[in-house]
Each structure stands twice: as C-alpha cells, then as structure tokens.
Design a protein that fits this description.
403 residues; pyruvate-formate lyase- activating enzyme; 16 helices; 41% helix
Length: 403
C-alpha cells in the first residue's frame, strides 16, 4: 500500500473566516459523516458501531470536529453538494452537537446553497416533534427513517429496539414537523417471511406516502449475531425462488403506486431520488468522516481506522501515514460496470469504451445476447440495462461481465 498525503499547512489566520467566503473550488464532493453509536446492536448489522456511552461519544465528537477542520484545510474551498449522517444511529446526537458539526462543515468547506442534507434516524430515538423541528432548523432537509419492518415479530428477530407502531408514529411526527422529503428503509427476505407478508408491508408503506423507499434484501454477514445464530439453528429464510419473487413483485407493486425504481434497492417519487447515494453510483468523489468511514478522491481510496483510539491517533497525526489504494484503470472499469448496472439508467456503452479501450458488446457478445433473449437485459439508446428479473440476479451477471 502507498502512503497518503504529507504535512497539513498551518491555516493563515489573516484570511477572512471561511464561513464568509462564497468562492468555491470548481470540483465538488459528497460528504459522509459516520456516527458509530447505537442504543443496542441489531442482529444483522455489520457496520462499525458501539453501544452509546457518554465519555466515548464526547471523545468521538471532539475528534470528528478536528477531522473536519483538517480536511477543510487540506482540500480548500471544495464545494460539498451533499451531507449524509449515517451510522450507527445519528439520531442519538443532541441537536446542539449536530448544529456544531454542520456549522463547522460550513466554515471548513463551501456547502452548496441547495445541498441535500440527510440524517438517518431510528424510530425509538425520534418520538418528539420538537426534535424533528429542530432538525429542520439546522438545515437537515432529508430524513431516512430505519423502519426495516412493519411486523413486530420481524423486528424482534432482527433485534430492533422499536415496534411497528413506534415507526409509524415517528413518521407522523416528522410530517407534523414539516419534513417534505422522507425515506423509509425496509429489509425483505427475513426469517419466516412470506411473499404476501412482504407485499402487504409495501402496500402499507405506500399508503403512508413517503417520498422515497429503500428496500434491501437481508444479507447474513460474518461477525453479526444473525450469522452466529445461523451456525446453530435454521433461520428459516425464504428460498431463493421466494426471494426473487419478493424482489420482482415488490418492485412492480411500488411502481404501480408511483415509486420509480432508479436503483436495485431504491424507489422514489418523481424528483426525490437520493442525490447523495446517486452520486456513489455515478462514481463521484466522496469524503468519509468518522471511524471506519471510506473516501474516494480521484483515484485514491482510503478507509479511516475503525476503533476510536486508532481513529483519534490518525487525526491527531494529520493522517500523514494513512494508507491508500491507487485505483487502476481496470478497477475503474469494474466499478463502472458494477455501479451502473445497479441503476435503472444502466451502463453507457460509449463510456465503457472510452475507459476500457474495448467494446463491451464485442467482448461479451454471446453473454449479452443470452441476457437479452432471456429477458434479463435490454439495449436501448446506447445503454445496457438490466430488467427487474436481471437485477434479481445482478451479482452473477456483473461477475461475468467483469471477468
């Protein structure tokens, strides 16, 4: 692995405060802030997080603020188009701390005037309408509510700390507060879940009227409680055929309710596609802040240390010895195929040709013909797109196309 960056120049105290400077760099970046604290660890979660503890949180907040200043000095007046607070459970952060973090982002970078600012929230930590109003007053204009299921038995199996009723109430409070851009997160393919149960949940979710829905298939990841349980008992997961139906029929149901599937797991009413997540799929640069956060700037990709002591040491050391991965042309081609085919727009064949120096249609002629003939893909207006049936087996297709 190569080494990343050198010393950080000391800021010039004679300059005007950054918050007053409206001249931005031509380049822009997506900003992700990882909040690694939860009230409890969900059984399926593989993201880095810890149970909330006041002294650890105070340490994290101080280090995060130092990291924001550091990157602000290093990258200059780089424009930030989106800010996304993920976790963990960002809704555990007091409003005053969120205000401090966002104010520091505005001082250290050039936050776009119409920036999408998203915060992930869990229903158990959002049972107060004044809290939602406070979020809006800070500039948070998009809410991602982690519902995961509207069946209490599912929530118990997942280890979620809220009930279905609490989730619906939290959504209502956010609406009452004035949020006009709400996303609800769901997981399908759960233990003992049937196709009808999943479709009924989607019908109920659509009746609530969120602007956006994220629907992810359950993945049993190493190191999670569900993985440990799967080694001891039969979790009674739906069959592959049943899961395929959940994906395809669920997507068709949501589209009949006015939600366009613009990415494998994401559906939105017209004009409410997630700008931040769409930036990832388009291959835009992003800067990750906080423990375990990943960044890609140009061809350089790097990951912050996960544990607080190592993360704090890296920030205090100005990241002078941070390892990074230099993305090769082949890496970029693979990611272009992988990310593009996740989206409804599909892969632009001319862009592939420019980057790979080869014609995808010629390189994989027989495979692509078979995909089209079997209704798994379409070619239209210079793009290769997967159908819903193709998206259901996208991992296999993408693996073949990137061989």
């Amino acid at each position: 692995m190569a080494r990343f960056f050198g010393e950080v120049p000391a800021p010039d105290r004679r300059q005007r405060p950054a918050a007053r400077q409206r001249i931005c760099e031509e380049k822009s970046v997506l900003l992700y802030v990882h909040v690694p604290f939860c009230r409890s660890k969900c059984r399926y979660c593989s993201f880095y997080s810890n149970v909330f503890e006041p002294s650890a949180y105070a340490w994290y907040l101080q280090t995060l603020q130092q990291e924001i200043r550091l990157w602000g000095q290093r990258l200059g007046r780089l424009q930030v188009d989106t800010v996304y607070f993920g976790g963990g459970t960002p809704s555990l952060m007091p409003l005053a701390d969120l205000d401090d973090v966002l104010s520091l982002v505005r001082e250290s970078f050039c936050l776009a005037e119409q920036a999408e600012i998203t915060l992930e929230a869990n229903p158990d930590s959002t049972q107060d309408v004044s809290w939602f109003r406070g979020l809006l007053s800070l500039g948070v204009n998009r809410l991602s509510l982690g519902v995961q299921s509207l069946a209490d038995e599912d929530l118990v199996r997942l280890g979620r700390p809220h009930s279905a009723r609490m989730a619906v109430e939290a959504y209502g409070l956010a609406r009452q507060a004035g949020f006009g851009n709400i996303s609800l997160d769901f997981i399908w393919g759960l233990p003992r879940q049937k196709l009808k149960q999943w479709l009924d949940q989607l019908k109920t979710a659509a009746k609530l009227g969120p602007e956006h829905l994220s629907c992810y298939g359950l993945s049993i990841e190493n190191g999670t409680e569900l993985h440990r349980m799967s080694q001891e008992v039969d979790l009674e997961l739906p069959s592959e055929q049943e899961q395929s139906k959940m994906f395809v029929y669920g997507a068709e149901l949501l589209e009949s309710k006015g939600y366009l599937q613009y990415e494998i797991s994401n559906f939105a009413r017209m004009g409410f596609q997630a700008v931040h997540n769409s930036g990832y799929w388009e291959g835009r640069d992003y800067l990750g802040l906080g423990p375990s956060a990943v960044s890609t700037l140009g061809r350089r990709r790097f990951t912050n240390p996960a544990f607080m002591d190592a993360y704090d040491a890296a920030v205090r050391g100005d990241f002078s010895g941070l390892d990074f991965e230099e993305l090769s042309d082949q890496d970029r081609v693979v990611e272009l195929v992988m990310l593009s085919l996740r989206t409804a727009r599909g892969l632009e064949l001319a862009r592939y040709r420019r980057l790979a120096g080869a014609d995808l249609m010629k390189r994989h002629e027989r495979l692509i013909q078979a995909l089209v003939q079997n209704g798994l893909a379409r070619i239209n207006r210079g793009r290769l797109r997967l159908t819903k049936e193709g998206m259901a087996v996208s991992n296999v297709i993408i693996a073949r196309l990137t061989e």
